[in-house]
TrEMBL record, chain A:
Protein name as annotated: NAD(P)H-flavin reductase
Cofactor: [2Fe-2S] cluster
Entry-linked CDD domains: sulfite_reductase_like (cd06221)
InterPro entries: Cyt_c3_hydrogenase_gsu, Dihydroorotate_DH_ele_sf, Dihydroorotate_DH_Fe-S-bd, FAD-bd_FR_type, Flavoprot_Pyr_Nucl_cyt_Rdtase, FNR_nucleotide-bd, OxRdtase_FAD/NAD-bd, PyrK_electron_transfer
Keyword vocabulary terms for this entry: 2Fe-2S, Electron transport, FAD, Flavoprotein, Iron, Iron-sulfur, Metal-binding, Transport
Species in which this protein is naturally found: Desulfacinum infernum DSM 9756
Molecular function (Gene Ontology), one example: oxidoreductase activity
UniProtKB/TrEMBL annotation, chain B:
4Fe-4S ferredoxin-type domain sequence ranges: 234-265, 313-344
A molecular-function term among this protein's GO annotations: metal ion binding
Protein name: 4Fe-4S dicluster domain-containing protein
PROSITE patterns with a match to the protein in the record: 4FE4S_FER_1, 4FE4S_FER_2
Highest rank taxon of the organism: Bacteria
Record's keyword terms, sorted: Iron, Iron-sulfur, Metal-binding
Coiled coil: none
PANTHER family: ANAEROBIC SULFITE REDUCTASE SUBUNIT A (PTHR40447:SF1)
Xref: InterPro entries: 4Fe4S_Fe-S-bd, 4Fe4S_Fe_S_CS
TrEMBL record, chain C:
Keyword Cell wall biogenesis/degradation in record: no
High-level lineage: Bacteria, Pseudomonadati, Thermodesulfobacteriota, Syntrophobacteria, Syntrophobacterales
Keywords carried by this UniProt record: Iron, Iron-sulfur, Metal-binding
Keyword Ribonucleoprotein: no
GO molecular function: iron-sulfur cluster binding; metal ion binding; oxidoreductase activity, acting on CH or CH2 groups, with an iron-sulfur protein as acceptor
InterPro entries reported in the protein's UniProt record: 4Fe4S_Fe-S-bd, 4Fe4S_Fe_S_CS, FRHB/FDHB/HCAR-like, FrhB_FdhB_C, Helical_ferredxn
Protein name: 4Fe-4S dicluster domain-containing protein
Residues in 4Fe-4S ferredoxin-type domain copies: 252-282
Length: 280, 353, 316
């Protein structure tokens, strides 16, 4: 068998195997992936918020956040919403299938700066994925952080990801507020859009950092809501999305002015966002 | 000029043939069928070498091919794993030494835009970098700037040695070859005979004279701020860009445009992952899976092209990403003139008064 | 020229803007101009160097234009006006929203031929045109060159130099160079043996950069951002740099222009590497002519043949 070339080629994926697939919602699947080389897997380090490029060979690569926390390293977890060519192909894979992984890429949440602070997570739909890695990191290092409140919304109850672990989150002392867009039979949590629930809950900005991720329209109203509640720009973190290819600052497409989302992001503070040219 | 060699016109073919023994030699050349159409081609004996003409497309494809294999993947049967097969990856590549002979100073300088991006990092591109390390540029001192050229306006000039390993200086009966770098000296030694003192003097005169010429008006290197101020002035961008067709021509002929895409081309699980030229002027370039496009029309796209070259790149790498070769101006189907757009950036007060 | 300015001046209050040409970075390169004020009109030029076919802008500009009730003025050469006709036929352009200034066309210049014909290669400072002669001035003096010597290929075969569908024709009609359709360039390629023809296109197309200028300059290529040549789903072409994919792209382009191409030759004019891509479409135009006696864009009321289905048609 020809030898696999493992040099410092940043385009060369590491081979992994899908250990488990979880159908989260009708169009989102979670993949738990283990790198084939046990040494590589053992040595793999990343920070919460960093992303990976998953390869379906013959179809292509796409970017997904590593949504398992660095504190749990049996597997790397990615949640994938089915939207186009590569994500459709990912959804066709089965447990045990080989998959390529280029990771970790991009920057991460400033975990150390968040120590001692109260935290507010505001997530919508698949936007919960990048929040989950940080949330579980904090849950695993619970005593280092203050109050942790999560407002998580989706269109309907069956569109909420990670339902099977909500109890675990709560047990770790997370104040979990769930909401869906409208009434559903059997739904006993909140009803209403995420920004509305945010205004109702009104978590105090005092010594708190808000971290938000979701569809652009939700982000827009959440940012406005946070401002209303008195949050300063540097108390707000978000992750940006741009079409990506290389993920390593070379192919030229993910820029917002002179900022490259793939290497300078995806995590940005609202202060940084305001300094960017307006081309979101 | 300390050390220099002389190459007579009549010896050019022979010298290029000699160089070809050790390297792929790329020269501006025309086809028999289209004498006016000059582009970089791999030298073979008999090729019509055209040092007198500017090439249509830049030399960038020599180091950055229009399409190249990043890796090959193959499906291999393996019953010890659950899927029953593994995927084997192979990124092996061979790199031959390359000589770009007779390009213009702007062509050589164009790669100074690639270098910080592809060879420095945060991630080093091994494909480009490995080739780059083995490439020697011999550029021709340029005496026939046309109306589209503007190298002096971006801090270069028709006799600019930056980016070149050696210079070809036209003199009576041939060329004086002047090494600029050690690599250039090593290349030239075997192909030319030492130039006579009067040839060196003549060459020095040419170099001095061309070095004094200014190609293109003013300076376009300090407009990063002006660009930011213009960013949200739709009237400005419309006035310049309404005529643009949003094709990929300007970026494809440009020696400093390096955007690419990566695609898998395969039959089932056997195939290759390739990288090919892409262009910020194409709508798909930034189209996201959701249908959202942050640069939905040619106005935002062209603004990005200008911004990348004259504002964003300077902010990241401390230099403009344009060598003033004029190709985008010369070959644009509707003569969009990037110089005029950039030059007008600061004129805000006058324009709106 | 003076009549053109005067005519548009007099009318300008009723026009939203005028699309014409102005001097580009060099007098040799007139460039499309979107003239939005009366003062702008002074920039308008019209001569045999005004090559771009301005009808390519019409669907977009009409879509974006505010409903002011004012018309959009546009200057069109003979071949450009056929493109307009086809756009009207296919419903992409509402003729009544336009004011069409038809300019009888002496023919346009092939820049490469001009470069060969000129003795000087110095930047040009002035150009004028009279009695079939181009006078080109640079620091090396003034050279006079016969237009006929440097004519673009499209113009050598032109039979519609006098615009159709115009609101006004400014200038005297010019005698067409051809009165009968001429496909001699297609004939020349078809006369080659199969192997020769293959070698010919392989060599020509090997230069193609897939910059898609030919597609984007074509007034009838209306899919633009949704072109099959770049689609990955369905995937017709790969991103490899081989003739096979380039050929497929050009076949897609040509077939989509069957019975629609108005023979303005823009695709070929804009190609940076000189591929005679218009030949593919001329072949299509010939088939449309022979099969249905149809010339796209000449009759705005006609239905394009491939938009109709007639089982009684013969020859298919
Ligand atoms: C930093 C970052 C983190 C992300 N994390 C997640 C996640 O955890 N879960 C999830 O479901 N989605 C995530 N996305 C979005 C995801 O990358 C796209 O939905 C996905 O690339 C679409 O690929 P496709 O081939 O199915 O779509 P197509 O529309 O067929 O796109 C073709 C190709 O374009 C590129 N592309 C298109 N849209 C995007 C996009 N929005 N972002 C990046 N590249 C794109 C990809 O290379 C893709 O393969 C993330 C995006 C970014 C930028
Ligand atoms: S500027 Fe010219 S070459 Fe560039 S995209 Fe526009 S029309 Fe094409
Ligand atoms: S932007 Fe234009 S002038 Fe500048 S390097 Fe590119 S092609 Fe040449
Ligand atoms: S094809 Fe005819 S109308 Fe068109 S530019 Fe040539 S001569 Fe003029
Ligand atoms: S304009 Fe020429 S190079 Fe560009 S895609 Fe068309 S044929 Fe190819
Ligand atoms: S994804 Fe290629 S530069 Fe960011």
């Amino acid at each position: 068998m020809p030898k696999v070339v493992t040099n410092d080629n940043p385009y060369l994926p590491h081979m992994g195997t899908i250990r488990e697939i979880i159908q989260e919602t009708p169009n989102i699947k979670t993949f738990r992936i283990v790198l084939d080389d046990p040494e590589e897997m053992a040595a793999f380090r990343f920070e919460p918020g960093q992303v990976g490029q998953l390869s379906v060979f013959g179809v292509g690569e796409s970017t997904f956040v590593i949504n398992s926390p660095p504190t749990r390293r049996e597997y790397l977890q990615f949640s994938v919403m089915k939207t186009g060519e590569v994500t459709r192909a990912l959804h066709r894979l089965s447990e045990g299938d080989p998959i390529g992984v280029r990771a970790p890429l991009g920057n991460s949440f400033p975990v150390d700066e968040l120590k001692g602070k109260d935290i507010l997570f505001v997530g919508g739909g698949i936007g919960m994925a990048p929040l989950r890695t940080l949330l579980l990191t904090m849950a695993d290092r619970r005593e280092e952080f203050g109050d942790i409140t999560v407002i998580y919304g989706a269109r309907s109850p069956q569109d909420l990801c990670y339902r099977y672990e909500f109890d675990e989150w709560k047990a770790a002392g997370v104040n979990l507020i769930l909401t869906v867009d409208r009434e559903f039979p059997g739904w006993e949590e909140r009803v209403g859009f995420v920004p509305t629930v945010l205004a109702e809950e009104a978590p105090s900005p005092f010594n708190r950092v808000a971290i938000t991720c979701g569809p652009p329209i939700m982000i827009k109203f959440v940012l406005a809501g946070l401002k209303e509640l008195g949050y300063e720009d540097d108390q707000i973190l978000t992750t940006l999305e741009r079409r990506m290819k290389c993920g390593i600052g070379l192919c030229g497409r993910c820029n917002i002015g002179d900022t490259y989302v793939c290497v300078d992001g995806p995590v940005f503070s609202n202060t940084q966002l305001r300094r960017m040219v307006s081309e979101l | 000029m300390e050390q220099a060699f002389f190459l007579a016109d009549a010896e050019l073919q022979e010298a290029l043939a000699g160089l070809s023994a050790q390297a792929d030699v790329w020269v501006p050349a025309s086809d028999a069928r289209k004498p006016g159409l000059v582009r970089f081609r791999r030298f073979q004996p008999g090729l019509t070498v055209r040092l007198d003409a500017r090439s249509l497309v830049s030399a960038k494809e020599v180091l950055f091919p229009r399409s190249e294999t990043l890796l090959r993947f193959t499906k291999e049967k393996d019953l010890s794993v659950p899927a029953g097969h593994r995927i084997h990856l192979d990124d092996a590549r061979t790199v031959r030494p390359v000589v770009v002979f007779g390009c213009r100073p702007c062509d050589a300088r164009g790669f100074l835009t690639f270098d910080p991006v592809f060879t420095k990092g945060p991630y080093r591109d091994p494909y480009y970098s490995e080739r780059r390390e083995k490439t020697t540029f011999v550029s021709l001192v340029c005496r026939d700037a046309d109306a589209a050229c503007f190298c002096s306006a971006v801090g270069s000039g028709p006799a600019d040695p930056e980016g070149s390993d050696a210079q070809l200086i036209p003199v009576d009966g041939g060329y004086v070859l002047r090494p600029v770098t050690e690599r250039g000296a090593a290349l030239l030694e075997p192909i030319g005979r030492t130039a006579a003192p009067e040839q060196i003097r003549e060459a020095q005169d040419v170099l001095d004279q061309v070095g004094r010429e200014t190609v293109g008006e003013g300076s376009l290197t300090t407009l990063a701020e002006a660009f930011r101020a213009r960013f949200q002035d739709p009237a400005f961008w419309h006035a310049h860009i309404d005529k643009c067709l949003s094709c990929g021509l300007c970026t494809f002929v440009c020696p400093t445009c390096y955007c690419f895409t990566i695609t898998d081309e395969a039959r089932g699980l056997n195939g290759e992952r390739i990288r090919s030229w892409d262009a910020c002027m194409f709508p798909h370039f930034t189209l996201e899976a959701s249908g959202h496009n942050p640069r939905p029309s040619k106005v935002e796209r062209y603004r990005n092209r200008v911004g990348h070259k004259f504002s964003y790149f300077p902010a990241r790498y401390g230099q403009v990403a344009c060598c003033g070769c004029g190709r985008c101006v010369r070959h644009c189907p509707v003569s969009v003139d990037i110089r005029a757009v950039v030059r007008d950036l600061p004129a805000q007060e006058e324009a709106h008064a | 020229m003076d009549t053109l300015h005067a005519h548009l001046e007099a009318l300008f209050d009723d026009l939203e803007l005028v699309i014409g040409w102005e001097t580009g970075y060099e007098p040799l390169r007139p460039t499309p101009a979107f003239l939005r004020s009366r003062e702008d009109l002074s920039r308008l030029v019209w001569n045999p160097l005004c090559a771009p076919n301005l009808s390519v802008y019409l669907p977009g500009i009409l879509k974006d234009a505010k409903e002011t009730g004012k018309k959009i003025g546009v200057c069109l050469k003979g071949c450009d006006s056929r493109s307009l006709g086809a756009l009207v036929q296919e419903g992409f352009v509402e003729r009544e929203r336009l004011y069409v200034v038809g300019l009888p066309c002496p023919g346009t210049v092939d820049p490469e031929a001009l470069a060969e014909a000129r003795k000087s290669s110095a930047p040009v400072t002035h150009v004028s045109f009279r009695d079939g002669l181009l006078a080109i001035t640079s620091r090396d003096g003034t050279e006079e060159i016969e237009l006929e010597r440097v004519l673009a290929r499209r113009c050598r075969r032109c039979r519609h130099p006098n615009p159709l569908h115009a609101d006004v024709i400014l200038g005297d009609p010019v005698p067409p160079r051809r009165t009968e359709p001429s496909f001699s360039d297609v004939d020349a390629v078809e006369a080659m043996s199969l192997e020769e023809r293959r070698a010919y296109w392989e060599e020509e197309l090997s230069r193609c950069l897939r910059c898609y200028a030919c597609r984007n300059a074509c007034p009838l290529c209306v899919c633009r951002d949704r072109c099959l040549a770049e689609s990955r789903t369905p995937k017709w072409t790969t991103q490899r740099d081989g003739v096979r994919d380039k050929f497929l792209f050009h076949m897609i382009h040509a077939l989509h222009l069957a019975g629609r191409c108005t023979e303005c030759g823009e695709c070929e004019r804009v190609c940076p590497v000189g591929i005679p891509v218009a030949l593919f479409k001329e072949k299509m135009a010939r088939i449309a002519l022979e099969l249905w006696d149809y010339q796209a864009g000449t009759d705005p009321a006609a239905t394009p043949p491939l938009q109709t289905f007639d089982p009684s048609e013969t020859g298919i």
